[in-house]
Design brief:
Strand content: 25-35%
Helix content: 40-55%
Structural class: alpha+beta
Number of helices: 13
Largest sheet: 5 strands, mixed
Radius of gyration: 56 Å
Number of strands: 17
């Protein structure tokens, strides 16, 4: 939220202004030396009703310290910084702290910049009036700290002194702020009041104050006397041109001028109007760039924070309400689509039920007797039990084959020639149904096996004979014969060949067995 109004407080005046991208416009200005300044300010604020505004402090009672503390975090660090601030600034009303760097040697402590500010009685009275009237104070800023925050946009210098005008100088006086930066960090700042009307009177005294500042910095060993002190003036274009024409014969100083419009572009303000002072640029920058408040005086910003929280809650509530409305609309739309789909399915179901009813009306009912149903069940069971599936045939042969490690099965062949049923009816006498007799008819298979010739004729014949006996012992096998062999065997054999060339030790001895099986 950009704050469009500001209350500027210096040691000599109070100014209420409007701030936007085009600059700062003063709408109320009053000297703090007048006894009725507080009544005038209160009357103006009651009439104006400005809403939320910032407070900008351009006071001389600021102290600056750089302190090293152990590298800790969380509440312990905050408590240590609070104790350090109270010991360094026992009479300060406001304190600001910023982490600068971490040391690279030793304990690697953290270095902090601490700023303490003691409020003059006039400013303290204004704060009390603002608290009692419950005005919306968005933030409290120090102009010297704002200078620190924009100093990164200036050319880096080892040691520099930034000189700028304080707003609201009384007639016959000009008030300047001198801010010293060491290696780009704020080291100290002081306010100087100069009496005079002409440029010669003012600038001569200003140069004396600048030299006094340089002498103080050198005496406190904050200044490297081997190098020049860069003095940067941040005045309006007219005042800057007059200041640069003033002859300065000091070899220990290097005078430079800062173009405020150019600085505004670097900061990101994008202004076209000419600034009258650096203070105006800092006020516009704080209001437009949403810089975090420097100080949080007790009770001063409570009203604004409460209203800000309420606005955030209203915004969140509005977003949630909008999201809820969108979700409800989506759910309603989805429900409508699903309802339409359900209606379509209902119509389809009704059509299918009508078709089913028509089919049932046209179906001729046929009653099946219990006897026929029983026959159908028995027939289905017989088909499942006595059909010659490969798995059943292989399971029978596997039972006989178990334990014969020298016999290898080379081929199994199904013989389709019909068998003479005489002598093969030992387990199905009494069946008269032609289909059952055909289903349970015995089937003949040819099983081709081989044994290694290295076993010798006797052992080969013994293994074949034991395998035949194992097949005969199976209840499903009705007959087993050696149909073809490469050795001359018993009287039951039907020989197809003699030992011949098969007796070679390099070839296995093959046998062809005829197996008759019924399930």
């Amino acid at each position: 939220m950009r704050i469009q109004h500001g209350l500027y407080l210096s040691d000599v005046s109070v100014i209420f202004c409007d701030a936007d991208q085009m600059g700062v416009t003063s709408v109320f200005s009053y000297a703090l030396s007048d006894a009725d300044y507080l009544e005038k300010l209160e009357a103006f604020l009651r009439q104006r009703q400005p809403g939320a505004f910032n407070v900008y402090l351009d006071l001389m009672g600021e102290e600056y310290k750089q302190e090293s503390i152990p590298h800790i975090s969380g509440r312990d660090r905050d408590a240590l910084l609070d104790r350090k601030s109270k010991s360094l600034f026992p009479s300060a009303d406001l304190v600001w702290k910023k982490h600068l760097r971490r040391e690279k040697t030793g304990r690697k402590d953290d270095v902090y910049l601490l700023v303490g500010l003691s409020l003059p009685s006039s400013v303290d009275h204004i704060f009390d009036a603002l608290v009692q009237a419950k005005y919306q104070i968005a933030g409290v800023y120090s102009l010297s700290i704002l200078e620190q925050q924009i100093h990164a946009n200036l050319e880096l210098s080892e040691q520099s002194l930034l000189v700028s005008r304080v707003l609201g100088s009384p007639e016959g006086k000009r008030i300047y702020r001198q801010t010293f930066f060491k290696d780009g960090h704020l080291a100290m700042s002081r306010v100087t009041s100069i009496n005079g009307e002409t440029d010669e009177q003012v600038f001569s005294q200003l140069m004396i104050e600048i030299e006094r500042m340089r002498h103080f910095l050198a005496g406190t060993r904050q200044l490297n006397t081997a190098n020049k002190l860069v003095v940067r003036s941040a005045f309006s274009e007219e005042e800057a041109s007059r200041f640069l024409r003033y002859e300065v014969n000091n070899e220990r100083l290097k005078i430079e001028n800062i173009q405020l419009p150019s600085l505004a572009k670097k900061v990101g303000l994008g202004r076209t109007k000419v600034f009258s002072s650096l203070a105006e640029l800092l006020i516009v920058g704080a209001s437009q760039k949403l810089i975090s408040t420097h100080f949080k005086p007790k009770g001063l910003t409570n009203v604004f924070n409460v209203l800000k929280t309420k606005r955030m809650m209203r915004a969140v509530t509005f977003v949630l309400l909008l999201v809820s409305t969108c979700v409800a609309g989506f759910v309603a739309y989805t429900a409508k689509v699903k309802n339409d789909q359900l209606q379509v399915l209902s119509f389809r179901v009704q059509g299918l039920e009508q078709q089913r009813a028509q089919l049932l009306d046209n179906v001729q009912e046929t009653e099946v007797s219990a006897t026929k149903m029983k026959q159908l069940v028995e027939l289905s069971h017989d088909i499942s039990t006595y059909q010659f599936g490969p798995d059943k045939v292989l399971e029978v042969i596997a039972r006989a084959y178990r334990g014969f490690k020298y016999i290898s099965i080379e081929d199994i062949k199904w013989i389709d020639k019909p068998l003479n049923q005489q002598g093969n009816n030992r387990r199905h006498r009494g069946y008269s149904e032609p289909f059952i007799m055909k289903l349970k008819a015995a089937r003949q298979f040819e099983l081709k096996v081989a044994l290694p010739s290295s076993l010798g004729n006797r052992e080969i014949l013994e293994n074949i004979e034991r395998f035949l006996n194992a097949l005969r012992e199976l209840p499903e096998v009705t007959d087993v014969r050696r149909k073809q062999a490469a050795l001359n065997t018993s009287e039951n054999a039907e020989m197809a060949a003699s030992l011949g060339s098969a007796s070679s030790l390099s070839k296995p001895v093959e046998f062809t067995l005829s197996i008759t099986m019924e399930l």
